[in-house]
Amino acid sequence: MSNLFQAKRLWSFIRLLTFSSLIFFIHQVSSQTTSPSAKPRIIITADPELDDNNSLIRLILYSSDMQIEGLIYASSQFHWKGDGKGTKWFVPGREYDRFGMNECPCTSWRWAEGERFIHDIVVAYEKSYPNLKTHNPGYPSPEYLKSVIRYGNIDFDGDFSKDTPGSDLIRRKILDDHPGKLFITAWGGASTIARALYTIQRDFELTEDWKKIQAKINRKVVLLPSGDQDDTFASYIRPNWPDIEYRQFRQVPSYGYGAQIRASAENAPYLTSTWMKTNISDQGPLGELYRVWGDGKQMVEGDKVDYFGIAGKTNEELKAMGYLVWLPVQEKGSWLGEGDNHTVMNMLGNGLRAYEKGTYGGWGGRTILTAQPTAVSGMSSSGSADDMAALLSNQNRAQTDLEPFPNYFPEAQKDFAARMKWAVTPNFKDANHAPSLRIEGPLILMGSPGQKTKVHASVSDPDGDEVSIRWFQTPVSGFEAKAEISRPEGKSIELILPKDTKPGQEIHLIVAATDSGSPALTSYQRVIIRVKGL
Question: What does the pLDDT look like over 232-251, one tens digit per residue?
Fold first, then answer.
């Protein structure tokens, strides 16, 4: 595995915070639409990497599911603009140093003049918007998305020495009084996020309100990093803001560079050139911007690291041309990469409620705790999630899941393909839409050891397709109990809690409804059964 790929995906900060349970309301047109009050607020910071470009195209097709608060250009150790004054920059250990390129100190690194990849994607979205709106009325206007684009701290990697339009936007959103969590991604470096936090600290640290402001930010902000790509998490954010929640998602099929190399037999068909051409790259303005192997494009002219657009050359021939070949050449037109998907795939309104807590898990994987309680004596009689989280965070024994984490990759890819088709399809009846699924009753239940619990679901399909239903238990924390489920394929099931369950243990039950359309689409609902105290 290359150093570049490892750096792009590396992240080691794990934190658990309790997040209050939310009730999802399902729009009759599609279960992928949530009510406005349920949409998570999110800020995207991204550098002009190929996979950031692709991840952003996928994200914008799910802008109906989220309240996008910012689309911000960021720098990283892989991409920085320079200050335009001829200042030369060099950080030991970066790719230009590790791989002996002998090009730095330099005035900029892998940053195109007039870089506008975020703007370009929003313009493509604008062309697609009339069609998208037909299939889901929750899509934001192109004018709104344009209004939240900003340039952040892009001059040099890891430099957060000045305020920028991007850091100003993040600072304002962090300090506003809007209810709920604020999710902030770092697809590139985190210097723009660091500057926003630094400015808040500078302005309020010596005031009487500082403790209150700190507490508010710690409750509100969730950072979703894609590695520490400019060292600002380690050098500033982590030491100064240790109680902000950091979510690292694992146990998910790779969406990154070279995913097809490691793909399972179940996932591999959704990464081939045939599938990509049919469903993604040939689908209108957004498909035209989506990067695949051998597409003839290059983010920055002359970039020695970006050989992905060149077709018909072997690895050795590319090396002879001066390229740093860190990933073997793949089939022309096949999957290239969406390496930052794991930070946002759990934000989607597909009914999994994965953004409520990192351990819940969804299409973007889940956070995995490295702790497991050895006793429940410190838990209150109510067996609250707060008590369980406290025990989990204070123990150091490894967890063992009772259930394997589901492979959601095929379902996620088919849903992506459906949304790409929406973008080029003006009539609702000419595309497929996910079933509408709801639980008849509360989504959080209390149960006792040995208790039988009945759960009912109702489902309809906006296209009149046949719908199949299945129920399964999903792992969340290593402290869950294994339940017995009767008739896991029907609309109604009976679940039996084990007699040896302990107060505070949870059973996370997922019901999935898949239609018979093309592509077949799946909606979910999550029911949590929490064991009561004695």
Answer: 999 999 999 999 999 988 86
